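tool_call: predict_structure(chain=1)
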Amino acid sequence: MKLFVIGPAGSGKSTFVAEYSEYLKDNGYDVKCVNLDPATEPIYKADRDIREFVKTEEVMKKYKLGINGALIKSIDISVDYVDELKCNADYVLYDTPGQMELFIYSKSGREIVNKLSDRFSAALFLMDSTVVCDSESFVSAVMQNVIVSLRLSLPTLTVFTKSDLSEVDVDELRNELSEREGLLAELMEKTLFFIEYTTIPYRVIKVSSIKRTGFNDVFTAINELFCACGDIS
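tool_result:
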């Protein structure tokens, strides 16, 4: 199983990879962790690391680019080293770049995912629970989730992180939208149908990587993605 951990900056991707990989190992699985972020040293033991081949700070100097330009250039260069990042295990966790937009909206980012994935691949879209605190941020997160699925053509699970710091009540947020008035509120309410293209209606997954809670729910949902008897399609 190949899992691409994706989400906005600060959503807890690297911490999730570090702790969820240990959870899987504790349950007897062979697990490999791969760092796909050329701008950041991994906080876990990476079995493959793109920074062995491409470092964004060096790309900045060599091509005289700003940070965003260097990040995009780094992803472009990374395509040449995809074969060096491949590995096999029961579970392979791919930690994607912190700047999600620069990765999923680039042709090279999609190419990297295509070359690394197979028929048993999925994305985990991480939402920071402390950020999803009102209806506006909830709708924005849902829209990002759908875009990730479309751009990467992978089955995608929604995972609310940092549940030890904040609680997300999906029903309450949806009800809050229905009670709002005005053009903006109407626009947001109409976009809510996109939620049906996420896994939120089937199962709300909340995790705390620090406390390692919710990992059983993630594990079960991942397996249901590829099981005809599961409740997620």
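agent: Strands lie at 2-6, 31-35, 48-49, 91-95, 121-128, 156-161, 205-206. Proceeding to next step.
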